[in-house]
Amino acid sequence: MSAVSESRIGRIARRTPAFLLLCLGLALPWVVSSLANAEEKPKPNTVQVSLTEWRVSLTPKEVPPGPVVFQVTNSGKVPHALEIEGRGLEKSTSRILPGASATLALDLRPGTYEAYCPIGRGSHKRMGMTNHLSVADAKATSAESGEYGEYDHGGMHDMGHGEEAERSDAPKMMKVLGGGPVIQILPGPFPFADSAMVVIRDRPADQQADLTKKARLGPYSNKVANIAGNISLVAIDRGASGDSVSGVAEFTAQDGARWKVIMDRVQTKDIPFNPRFGGVVMGLFYHGASGVHTPLVPTIQSSLALWAFAHLYKDGRLVTDDAMVHVMLLSRTRRTSDWALDCWDCSDRPVEELQLQVTSAPNTPPFEAPGGFLFVNWEKSSGKSGTLKAAGPRG
């Protein structure tokens, strides 16, 4: 190696520590800044969500933009879920069983987001399970405070789950006329017992006994009889309260008894796991064999569902002034050849079947009819809906 080369190598070696120190000095502020930014990354805000029949509660209902974790608890008696929608985002939890919890982590931009229960193709949402979350900085949040408040429909039809909130939309009205073949459903075994038993075995002991009895000898069976009769009614859905119904059904049962049902009052009592939603509900998706409500009712889509009290007459004699009545204009559940119940999920069928169920009030004797109840279908029925421009007398 030449002397010149050795001299150059020596100089480079002597200068290397200083060069490295210079590089480190220049890089250190960038490294420190990156670490600081990493430490300053915003922590997620937490929103506590409580789901009940039929309400979505948010605490708080306003958060700043950025990561948000929704801690969701199902405090109700039937399965629910939480969906957040808005600003191009739509995310949900899986189905949450009663008493269980779930989390949903999202990154939210400024704006307003809808928080609702998506169970039942929007059925639970229509029953009042919807709320709004405002996402804004502190100043914007302060300026807009109170715009959305806590949505509480109180159980859309007087079911006693919190304070009621009047809906601003016009009352809805439907005129229903029974038509086509008329059949009486007599007590018999539920034709899809296997699907029912899977759900029944997870219910409390008293419910297991009651549902098992209905599975063996209940009102949803393939034991039917062709009869004659007619029905017409007018139902008004005013929202959280004030629903009304006026209608008459007359038919001659299989045994020759002549029955007349005069509906003039809605009823709003809620029964856990088999809820009588109360009053008048339009556009209801009812879970049957899915297990959300009762496993012994087919899953259907209805344009009208109502729960009422009625004056009941048999052969011209008053039986009771407080018969419990359930009417649904729903998707077809029975095949036209023999009127057998041939689907447990009938929600995609035409809405043309009108069901009338009449039972005695709690703690009163059953009716003098097969099984103690009356269950009649008009298989080609229709409903004409509209809105009321001015609210009439409240029922």
How would you describe this structure to a colleague?
The protein has 395 residues and is of the alpha+beta class. Helices cover 17% and strands 38% of the residues. The protein has five helices and 21 strands. The protein has helices at residues 3-39, 123-126, 138-143, 193-200, 205-217, and strands spanning 45-52, 55-59, 62-63, 66-74, 83-86, 89-92, 101-108, 111-116, 130-135, 172-177, 182-185, 224-237, 244-252, 258-266, 280-281, 284-286, 300-314, 317-331, 351-359, 374-378, 382-387. The strands form three sheets. The protein has an eight-stranded antiparallel β-barrel with strand order 11-12-13-14-17-18-19-20. A hairpin with a 6-residue loop joins strand 12 and strand 13 (244-252). Helix 4 packs antiparallel against helix 5. It is elongated.
Fill in the keyword field for this structure.
disordered C terminus, alpha+beta, elongated, 38% strand, 395 residues, eight-stranded antiparallel β-barrel, disordered N terminus, 17% helix, 5 helices, 21 strands, five-stranded mixed β-sheet
